[in-house]
């Protein structure tokens, strides 16, 4: 595996591990259909709209709109839970799985390309600085939570 591919994996790990921290405010503008598809693909099993909303830090209203759009496009299905008829489960269709794989590959390819352009030394420094940034952002978030 090349340094750029290793760096891409480390960057994704950092972003995923810190999705529900201080970064969530910065990511809001990028969340929507793509985020739901990627989450469902990674999660790998049926889940509720509430779990999606909580996991992606989206409102229940926003999730309802996104799920409606994805369902119309044939990328997800919403079905009643066999054990609890009050519960709705959301799953990816085969088309949704293909879309998730395609989006993941596109993002990965772009990140690897950027790291190759940056070079190994700058990429390593960048990853170290992002990790430091995340650590600082988490400390600020913890402090803000403590002040409330």
Give descriptors for this structure.
148 residues; mainly alpha; Arc Repressor Mutant, subunit A; two-stranded antiparallel ribbon; 2 strands; flat
Secondary structure: elements and pairs:
Elements: H1 3-17, H2 23-27, H3 33-43, H4 49-56, H5 60-72, E1 76-80, E2 88-92, H6 94-118, H7 120-147
Antiparallel strand pairs: 1-2
Describe the structure.
This protein is mostly helical and 148 residues long. It has a single domain, classed as Arc Repressor Mutant, subunit A (Orthogonal Bundle). It contains 7 helices and 2 strands, in the order αααααββαα. The protein has a two-stranded antiparallel ribbon. The chain is flat and about 55 Å long. It starts with a helix and ends with a helix. The model is unreliable at 22-30 (pLDDT under 50).
Short overview:
It comes from Enterococcus termitis. This protein is mostly helical.
Task: Give the averaged pLDDT, no decimals.
Answer: 87
Radius of gyration over C-alpha positions, nearest whole angstrom: 18 Å
What is the total domain count? 1
The total of helices stands at 7
